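Field log, afternoon session.

UNIT: design team B
ACTIVITY: writing a sequence onto a fixed backbone
BACKBONE:
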């Protein structure tokens, strides 16, 4: 009886090791680690924003609409629970991604406004915050790229035969990938007009 049990155990172990179960677990953990780093960098950006808004407000208090836009976009990002389970829910993942995109747009509008205030651009505190924000945006891009590659590897395993059978058996589904919402708009080159004068400071 013991010999039969040992043979069955060895057979099951052999089947599991050859069916991709371990690869599914490994790549799933890689995705979790990559996603944690994405969240870490997004949090860093979120933490920088209040100081940035306050510094700009000190020089350009009349730009209330832009400052409010950044503050509201940050609040919207904060209202979404960025848990590790988010990557298993395409709808929640898309909502989170949209909120981060709105925050990126609001920050871009803020930086356009800053161009109208030379004294703000020369302020040491602002320059330091801007450098930190630019560095964080670069880190976000790197972290997202790592996540994209980890998800790609995992999704290939989930969809490939025979590992797709193991994935089905253990409930592993494809993970959502980062997408660009306005893909058609960003595929067009931006219009650059150096002839138009910059608006004068208010």
């Amino acid at each position: 009886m013991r010999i039969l049990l040992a043979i069955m155990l060895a057979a099951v172990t052999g089947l599991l090791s050859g069916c991709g179960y371990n690869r599914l677990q490994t790549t799933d953990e890689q995705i979790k680690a990559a996603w944690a780093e994405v969240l870490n960098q997004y949090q860093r950006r979120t933490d920088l924003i209040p100081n940035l808004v306050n510094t700009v407000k000190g020089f350009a208090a009349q730009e209330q609409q832009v400052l409010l836009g950044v503050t509201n976009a940050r609040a919207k990002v904060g209202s979404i629970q960025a848990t590790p389970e988010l990557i298993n829910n395409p709808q929640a993942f898309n909502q989170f991604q949209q909120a981060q995109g709105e925050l990126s747009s609001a920050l871009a509008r803020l930086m356009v406004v800053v161009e109208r205030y030379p004294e703000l651009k020369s302020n040491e505190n602002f320059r330091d915050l801007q450098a930190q924000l630019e560095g964080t945006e670069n880190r976000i891009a790197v972290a997202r790229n790592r996540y994209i590659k980890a998800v790609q590897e995992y999704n290939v395993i989930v969809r490939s035969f025979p590992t797709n059978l193991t994935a089905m058996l253990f409930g592993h589904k494809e993970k959502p990938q980062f997408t660009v919402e306005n893909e058609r708009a960003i595929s067009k080159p931006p219009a650059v007009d150096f002839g138009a004068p910059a608006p004068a400071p208010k």
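LOG NOTE: The two ends are 89 Å apart (CA to CA).
NEXT ACTIVITY: expression trials, pending approval
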